[in-house]
Design a protein that fits this description.
The protein has about 300 residues and is of the alpha+beta class. The chain has 4 helices and 16 strands. The chain folds into 2 domains: about 180 residues, no CATH class; about 90 residues, Immunoglobulin-like (Sandwich).
């Protein structure tokens, strides 16, 4: 009898943790996901998923969130709320000399609740990166680390499920500073999925997709590369190249560039006129509406 009970207990313990799949995401509601990863290793740790009625008056092609941010002179906070219902999607406190805290979501599913896929999910139609302050966009080594965090998160089943519909993502970080001499962070991704975008919204999706940098060619390269991209409207464009230390090595600003397809040749030299060494470089394209980045491998 005892043997049977032990076999039953072992069988129950062997049941795998429930994994999220596409059928878990409703087709008549929008979804928000908050994903948290280790800052140094980018190891996925936990996530929280919530569903809400769609907002017809929101800017559905971006993140339909209102932001309240107070800088941590003593104690600060950042709060993201859904524009339609006022529900808080993500809220965290920042302290000057004490650990901060994620207040909302207040419950998370552990990483093993989500299966891993063999391939990365496709990129969102809109991707934005910020520090704790939503007005400060990441650049340099911070941007490179944020993209590495995102590339790893794209192997999870839930991001694959989000990518089956129109989705957008904000990459940020959460500060858990414990004292003035040592800083600790967590990576946070806020993803928004809208399966109901139809009609004219599809045109907006295509416009946002047009911001994404085309593949630079050649890449890898040993003597420069052609940078191709498309603008949906006339915009000021800034092209910047960073090394992995976060140092800007090259830049090009183009005022009032017309809409449509464009190509620019980077000759493989830095701003001092010196040929760059072998390594990985981050190319960033910035406009008033979006920031996109890609990696370029230089092999000598």
């Amino acid at each position: 009898m005892n043997m049977i009970i032990w076999i039953m207990l072992i069988g129950l313990l062997a049941i795998p943790t429930r994994s999220w799949a596409l059928e878990d995401l409703p087709e008549d509601l929008v979804s928000f996901g908050v994903f948290v990863s280790h800052y140094d290793t980018t190891t996925f740790e936990q996530a929280s998923i919530a569903h809400f009625p769609p907002c017809t008056d929101c800017d559905s092609t971006l993140l339909p969130l209102d932001v309240d941010y107070v800088a941590p002179v003593d104690m600060g906070h950042v709060t993201y709320t859904y524009q339609l219902t006022g529900d808080t999607i993500y809220a965290a406190t920042f302290f000057w000399q004490y650990p901060g805290e994620i207040l909302i979501p207040d419950t998370f599913l552990p990483a093993d609740s989500f299966e891993l896929e063999p391939d990365m999910a496709p990129n969102p139609q809109y991707l934005r990166t910020t520090y704790e302050d939503p007005e400060l966009q990441m650049s340099g080594s911070y941007l490179n680390e944020a993209l590495e965090f995102w590339d790893r998160l794209k192997y999870t089943s839930i991001i694959h499920a989000f990518s089956e519909s129109f989705y957008t993502v904000l990459l940020t970080r959460f500060s858990t500073t414990e004292n003035l001499m040592e800083e600790h962070y967590k990576w946070v991704a806020i993803a928004y999925r809208n399966p109901l975008i139809t009609g004219i919204d599809k045109e907006n999706i295509q416009q946002l997709q047009n911001y994404v940098l085309r593949d630079c060619f050649p890449n890898p390269t040993n003597a420069g590369t052609n940078i191709s991209y498309r603008l949906p409207e006339d915009l000021d464009v800034a092209l910047r190249m960073f090394n992995l230390l976060g140092e800007q090595i090259w830049s090009k600003t183009i005022k009032s560039q017309s809409s449509g397809e464009h190509s620019f040749r980077w000759n493989g030299f830095d701003e001092m006129g010196s040929e760059v060494q072998s390594g990985v470089y981050i190319l960033q394209l910035s406009t008033t509406n979006a920031v996109e980045s890609t990696k370029i491998l230089v092999i000598k």
